[in-house]
Every structure is written in structure tokens, then in C-alpha cells.
Specification:
single chain, mainly beta, Immunoglobulin-like, about 45% strand
Length: about 575
């Protein structure tokens, strides 16, 4: 089975629908997890969890909190419960294993038990046969809210404006400005963004027409030609900046409702872009779809501000109402086997004519998975993803191997990709080669439509790293985040980073680790993906343990908890 993802064709991107943004995750987490079958559990070996849900600020018990217990390492039907009037809950008939507990309640942030940091999983609850875990206290954090109005240059309210609460988050080892919440203004120009965690936010307002596209005003109503007075509304950061560097951050505390965050839209002269989409034959390509996207980090998550057009019989297109900035102009043609092309453009104060976008045919990329040694492996549990090497670029694909380890990516859009492989327990990825190239280190280049064969080698001779984390007082640190950071060329591949959370005894374990050199860190708080940023981890290198792992090695480490300053964790 193969699925192709064309970012520019998703409805939420093309039409700017106001929906809750997806949680930020690392690329390898988008792969379906390997299937596992759980062994039969005797009734006397079943486990249970009892506890209480309270308001983290007031300490008062919370009624009607919905609790969900999910397996930490394998999919399966979750267990659930609802807290009573005293905040008490009981989850019973649980199979032994490792779990994460989450809670959801109106007016509070959805969170996992013991989580420290944005996007970081919560504490592992390790249950052995017949365990009865009692006295658990789940402290739920009240949500923060931002409200305000969006006004035009005359102080009048503007409806249907997209307002985003943005936070700096880590994605692929880089700190990027990504949406954490959003809303749309009503007929009074009012918006309300709720469900926010405590932290620093930037606000951005993007005007959209009823079709969800940034539009211009002032066009000649008689002949449709451009007039010198053509203007539009540029995206604005609170309180009135056109660039994020000029925005005023809003620092929210738990339970805060920040009112009066009013944003005034600013008129700016807009320009027109004219161009042509060219097929490989050299002729204009009719019925191509053309999309103009802001060229910024994390643009894939920011549908507001995109513009769309289609080509005529000669492959020509025209777009109006474009505000100054940096963009990617992309074109796609065809249903099955889409041709595509893109180029970067910088928009200033003048119209742009004669832009040409050349369509390149897609590529088929075959892959073959092999396992070293005599390990008995169900190869149809191996999943491979191709992630665009450039953040915000369109394209991407994943496929599942058959029982013989063969798979094919059909119609891959031209570009460069980083492969990520999800394997069953007991295996690690030893090598990935694309022709004569080490694809782990250099990625895969299909920019000219050339496919080829991807050779993936797995091994069952992985290493294991166990250990414990203690505080500066020598006490076990529960819920700490432990990261295994690879060295050398594999430092650039998210596939070789591993993250674990300590259990109630302060213990952690990494299995199926690829041989090599690593640094191991134990954090009290850290955002998801931060450990992949060399600039973030560098100040803490003296607190890490270095380990060199051979095939089949087993190491046991004693780590000290790293206290991360609050400003560094955000």
C-alpha cells in the first residue's frame, strides 16, 4: 500500500478552513506503528489504577474529567474512566505493560500525566502482573484564553479574519514559529482563542475573503484591469507589525484570560503575478493548478494567506492582491501521476510578469527490505516514509512492505527527501542506500524525476541502554525526559534519536539501538524535538553521558537530572 501526500492539494491548505491545528510531531511519528499481538492475560494478573484529578492551581477536585490509558509502545484499545464528584477515578482490568495516562476536561488543557514541556509525552506507568497502583494525583492545568477584536484602518470591525496564536516549537531540529491555536472573527470583529497552555505567544491576523483566500480591492470594475490604487490587507502581528520580529509577545499564565488584544489591519499596495505553466513538451499546460504559498518555516501548517489559480488553454495564469513578501509558486497537473514544479519568488512593489513554472514528471521509487542473519521477521510490518528535505515543501509519501520486503512509492513528486523507516520490535535500521549513495547521510534526490532502487538493511543485533535518573538530592526522578542523541552523520537523521520517560521508580530503557556513538541527557523539562537542535543541547553537553555501543551491547547508566531554565525550555 502506498499513499502520496501533496500538501498543496489538501482542502485545509487551499481553502484556509478554520480547524484546530494538528499536534506538532516528528516525521517518524507519522508512520503507522508495527502491529503486535498481545498474549493472553490471566484474570489474577490484571492490574488497576486509582487516583484523583485536581485543579493544579486551586487543588480542588475536578468532576467529569475524562481519563484515557493507552499503551506506551503498542497500539490497542485504550482503557478509560470519568472522575466523580470528588475527582476520584478507577481504571481496572488492565493488562500488564507500560502505559501513558491522559485527561481531558472543558476549561482545562488536554495533557498527559507527568508531562513536562510542549509536545513531550507524559510519564510512563509501568504495571507488572497484579499491580494495584493507588494514590495517583493528576493535576490538570487550567486553559489560557486570548480575546480581542480585529479592526480595519477606520476602526471598523472586520469579519472572517483568521487569528492565530503562534509559538516557537521545534521541527526537524529547528526552532520554528508554528500555530498553537486559532479562531475566526465574527460579525463584530471579535475572536476568542481558547485551550492554550501557559507560555509565550505571538498573534497573527490574516484577512481572507469568503473563499478563504487573501484578496485585493480597488480593481477597475469596468474592464478588470489593474489600477494604481489596488490595495490589500497584509498579515499583521499583534499589535501592528508586518514581521514576526516586530511582534509583541503575550506571556500567558495558567487560567489567564487575556482580553483586549486588538489588532488593526493595515492597507498595503498589492501586486499582480502573471505567468505560464510549461509541460515537458515545451507547450503551456491547460488545467494546471497554481498555488502561491508564503515561503517561511512551518508554512505547511499555515493555510492562511495562500492564493490559488488555474491555467487557461495556453497554460497562462494570473493572480492579484499579493502583498510584499517571499513566496513559493507551485504548479500541479494531472490526477494519477501528477506532474509538478515550483520556484521561489520575492514580491516587492512592482508587478511580476512572465513567470514560468516547468512541470516535471513524477518518479516511481522501488525499495527492498532485507534482514541480516536468521531473524524471523514479518516484513509487512515495515513502513517507510519519504519526508521533503526542505521544510514546507510539497510532496511526501509512505509505503508498507509486502511479505517479501518489497515496496514501491508511486508518482513521487520531484524533490529531495529524507527516508524514515519504522520497524517491528527487535530490529534496528542498519543502512539505507539509494544506488551508490548513503541515503541516511545524503537523503534521496528525485528532483529530475529519476527513481531507482532503495535498499534497506535491518539487523536484530541492536544494543540496549537501561538506567536511572536521580535529582541533585539523590532521589529518583519520575517523569524525566531522557534523550539518546546520535553522533556523526546520523546526527542529521531524526530516525536515530530516541526519547523515553522515566517511570515511577526513575528508570528508563532504550531497546533496539543502532550501534554507534551517543550522548545521553536527562531533562526535567524540554519541548518535543528540542534535543535535535545542536544549539539547544550544546550548553548542557557537560551534563550528558557519552556511550559507544557495539552490536548486541547492553549498557546501564546513572544520570543526573538536568534543570532546564524556563526561558530555554520555551
Amino acid at each position: 500500500m502506498t499513499r502520496i501526500v501533496f500538501t498543496v492539494l489538501t482542502a485545509s491548505i487551499l481553502f484556509g478552513q478554520v480547524t484546530s491545528p494538528p499536534p506538532i510531531a516528528q516525521p517518524q511519528q507519522s508512520l503507522p506503528p508495527p502491529r503486535q499481538s498481545a498474549p493472553e492475560v490471566k484474570p489474577e494478573d490484571k492490574c488497576s489504577i486509582e487516583g484523583q484529578v485536581i485543579d493544579a492551581i486551586t487543588g480542588e477536585p475536578l468532576k467529569k474529567a475524562e481519563l484515557t490509558l493507552r499503551g506506551a509502545n503498542m497500539p490497542g484499545t485504550p482503557y478509560g474512566a470519568v472522575s466523580d464528584a470528588g475527582g476520584k477515578f478507577v481504571i481496572g482490568d488492565i493488562d500488564p505493560g507500560e502505559y501513558r495516562l491522559s485527561a481531558n476536561r472543558n476549561g482545562f488543557v488536554h495533557q498527559e500525566y507527568g508531562a513536562h514541556g510542549n509536545g513531550i509525552p507524559g510519564r510512563i506507568l509501568a504495571l507488572s502482573a497484579s499491580d494495584k497502583l493507588t494514590g495517583l494525583v493528576f493535576k490538570m492545568m487550567p486553559q489560557a484564553v486570548i480575546t480581542g477584536h480585529v479592526l480595519d484602518e477606520d476602526g471598523d470591525p472586520v469579519a472572517r479574519v483568521r487569528v492565530e496564536a503562534l509559538q516557537y516549537r521545534y521541527m526537524r531540529g529547528r526552532k520554528q514559529l508554528l500555530p498553537a491555536g486559532l479562531a475566526s472573527t465574527d460579525d463584530l470583529g471579535e475572536y476568542r482563542i481558547f485551550g492554550l497552555r501557559a507560555g509565550k505567544y505571538l498573534l497573527r491576523a490574516t484577512y481572507r475573503s469568503s473563499m478563504g483566500l487573501t484578496t485585493a480591492v480597488g480593481r477597475d470594475s469596468v474592464n478588470g484591469n489593474r489600477s494604481d490604487s489596488e490595495e490589500g490587507y497584509a498579515p499583521v502581528y499583534y499589535p501592528g507589525a508586518t514581521e514576526s520580529s516586530g511582534a509583541a509577545p503575550l506571556n500567558l499564565v495558567p487560567g489567564a484570560e487575556m482580553r483586549g488584544a486588538d489588532i488593526r489591519l493595515m492597507k498595503t499596495r498589492t501586486v499582480r503575478i502573471r505567468g505560464r505553466v510549461i509541460a515537458p513538451t515545451g507547450r503551456g499546460r491547460q488545467e494546471s493548478m497554481v498555488v502561491l504559498m508564503p515561503r517561511e518555516e512551518g508554512a505547511v501548517f499555515q493555510p492562511g494567506g495562500r492564493m490559488m489559480s488555474s491555467t487557461d488553454a495556453q497554460g497562462r495564469f494570473e493572480m492579484h492582491g499579493i502583498t510584499p513578501g517571499s513566496y513559493v509558486l507551485a504548479a500541479v497537473w494531472g490526477n494519477e501521476g501528477r506532474y509538478s514544479g515550483h520556484q521561489q519568488i520575492d514580491v516587492g512593489a512592482s508587478d511580476i510578469d512572465d513567470i514560468q513554472v516547468n512541470l516535471i514528471p513524477p518518479a516511481d521509487l522501488s525499495a527492498q527490505v532485507k534482514v541480516e542473519g536468521n531473524a524471523q521477521v514479518q516484513l509487512d510490518q515495515v513502513h517507510v516514509a519519504l519526508t521533503p528535505a526542505t521544510p514546507g515543501a510539497m510532496g511526501g509519501s509512505y509505503a508498507t512492505a509486502d511479505v517479501d520486503g518489497n515496496l514501491t512509492f508511486k508518482n513521487v513528486a520531484p524533490g529531495s527527501y529524507q527516508p524514515t523507516v519504522s520497524v517491528p520490535p527487535g530490529l534496528y535500521v542498519k543502512s539505507i542506500r539509494h544506488g551508490d549513495t548513503d541515503a541516511i547521510e545524503s537523503g534521496i534526490d528525485v528532483s529530475q524525476g529519476a527513481g531507482g532502487l532503495l535498499q534497506i538493511t535491518l539487523s536484530a543485533a541492536g544494543a540496549q541502554v537501561d538506567g536511572s535518573v536521580t535529582t541533585d538530592k539523590g532521589e529518583p526522578s519520575t517523569g524525566a525526559t531522557v534523550t539518546l542523541v546520535p553522533g556523526g552523520p546520523r546526527r542529521m537523521s531524526s530516525m536515530f534519536f530516541k526519547t523515553a520517560n522515566t517511570d515511577q521508580s526513575g528508570r528508563f530503557s532504550f531497546k533496539d539501538v543502532a550501534p554507534g556513538e551517543y550522548k545521553v541527557y536527562a531533562w526535567d523539562q524540554i519541548d518535543a524535538g528540542a534535543a535535535q537542535d545542536p544549539d539547544f543541547v550544546k550548553p548542557f553537553d557537560n551534563n550528558a553521558k557519552e556511550v559507544k555501543l557495539e552490536e548486541g551491547a547492553r549498557e546501564n547508566l546513572d544520570l543526573k537530572l538536568i534543570q532546564v531554565p524556563a526561558d530555554a525550555a520555551q
